[in-house]
Amino acid sequence: MSTSPAEQTALGFVHVHVAPTDAAEPRTVLLLHGTGGNERDLLELGAAVAPGARLLGVRGQVMEAGMSRFFRRLAEGIFDEADVVRRAADLAAFVPAAASIYGFDPAQVVAVGYSNGANIAAAMLLLHPGVLSAAVLFRSMVPLVPAQAPGPRPATVLIANGQGDPLIPRANAERLVALLQEAGADVTLHWEPVGHGLTPADVVRARAFMATQRGPA
Asked: Catalytic one among 17, 41, 140, 165?
């Protein structure tokens, strides 16, 4: 790991930075954990789906019953939309600031998020298009419906949800697809025959998606 304790608390987010190991891989993978996770939770997943890429794991700023999250919720599946807007703006501002510190291209940032982390990534795509060039959203749902859609910016998105997920109705995931498409994203929705947890099949599919999105060095 190449992040010092001082760097971890810089820019308003506790985070960890892992330098790239492949000089031909230009992307930075922004890793966004689920409820109760931390900045290191998805490092192994990030390395698996984007071998050699720079990794940037971020910890959510909100605490709920001692668990880290990226935004507040009022109840299970009911989000504090004003807080979603605020936190998405904070994270969108973090990306170029981190790029200036770590020396990566802010136009080559791909989010990989799980559950709550996927939802904040979806909010960034909806509210701040252009910050993320692509995203893999594991077990994601609609974080909010923007009052006014921003100007469309291209992004490529994979949503991988579980057919048996008790937390995310199918209609909600399909609504997220429609909202992202309205924001200019090219979206693929994939259903795994599982629940809310991640599986090896998710990793395989995400890695294949990331391979198709690899840009020029």
From this structure: 165
Per-residue pLDDT at 216 exceeds 50: no
Give bridge partners of residue 102 from the DSSP assignment.
none
pLDDT of the residue at 4: 47
Structure tokens given for 32: 């966004």
**pTM of the prediction?**
0.93
Return d(Cα 66, Cα 144) in angstroms, integer.
Answer: 24
Asked whether 138 and 198 are in contact (CB, 8 A), the reply is: yes
Residue 213 has pLDDT above 70, yes or no: yes
Q: What is the CATH number of domain 5-212?
A: 3.40.50.1820
Q: One of 41, 68, 115, 140 is an active-site residue; which one? A: 115
Element (H, E) at 39: none
**Residue 165 a catalytic site member:** yes
Domain ranges of the chain: 5-212
**Type of residue at 194:** V
Say if CB 128 and CB 150 are below 8 A apart.
Answer: yes
